[in-house]
């Protein structure tokens, strides 16, 4: 299966306009999710991890009390790909 390729910035901007809460941080998509406590944030991170495993594509995650920051990028493509957009949407779906 061919690896995904880096998207044009205009495609990413259009996606961001339709997905509140997400932003571009360097060459990645990022969003911080808020939860009532550590346990809820941890459960969310586990659900994101399971979705990531299904696609063999893994985010950077920063977990803290009541929050989880998820960043998607395809490092070997040098930035954001369609796979990152799809998994950001999957992240929203499990939040």
Report on this model:
Helix content is 43%, strand content 22%. It has 95 residues and is α+β, with helices and mostly antiparallel strands. It has one domain: Transcriptional coactivator/pterin dehydratase (Gyrase A, domain 2). A hairpin with a 2-residue loop joins strand 3 (60-64) and strand 4 (67-72). Helix 2 (38-55) runs antiparallel to helix 3 (82-94). The longest helix has 18 residues, at 38-55. The mean pLDDT is 95.
Write the layout of secondary structure elements.
Blueprint: H1 9-18, E1 23-25, E2 28-34, H2 38-55, E3 60-64, E4 67-72, H3 82-94
Antiparallel strand pairs: 1-2, 2-4, 3-4
Q: What is the name of the CATH superfamily?
A: Transcriptional coactivator/pterin dehydratase
Oligomer class: single chain
The CATH C-level name is Alpha Beta
Please count the helical segments.
3
Unreliable stretches covering 5 or more consecutive residues: none
Q: How would the global form be characterised?
A: globular
The largest sheet has its strands arranged as 1-2-4-3
Radius of gyration (CA) equals 13 Å
The average pLDDT score comes to 95
Percentage of residues in helical conformation: 40-55%
CATH topology: Gyrase A, domain 2
Total separate domains: 1
User: SSE order, as H and E?
Assistant: HEEHEEH
Work out the strand percent: 15-25%
Classification by helices and strands: alpha+beta
Please name the CATH architecture.
2-Layer Sandwich
Largest sheet: 4 strands, antiparallel
Concise description?
The protein is an alpha+beta fold and 95 residues long.
Pick out its properties.
95 residues; Gyrase A, domain 2; four-stranded antiparallel beta sheet; 3 helices
């Amino acid at each position: 299966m061919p690896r995904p390729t880096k998207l044009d910035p205009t495609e990413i901007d259009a996606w961001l306009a339709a997905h509140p809460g997400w932003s571009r941080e360097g060459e990645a998509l990022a969003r911080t999710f808020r939860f009532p406590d550590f346990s809820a944030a941890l459960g969310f991170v586990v659900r994101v991890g399971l979705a990531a495993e299904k696609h063999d594509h893994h985010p950077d995650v920063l977990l803290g009390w009541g929050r989880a920051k998820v960043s998607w990028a395809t490092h070997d493509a040098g930035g954001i790909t369609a796979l990152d957009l799809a998994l950001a949407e999957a992240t929203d779906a499990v939040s």
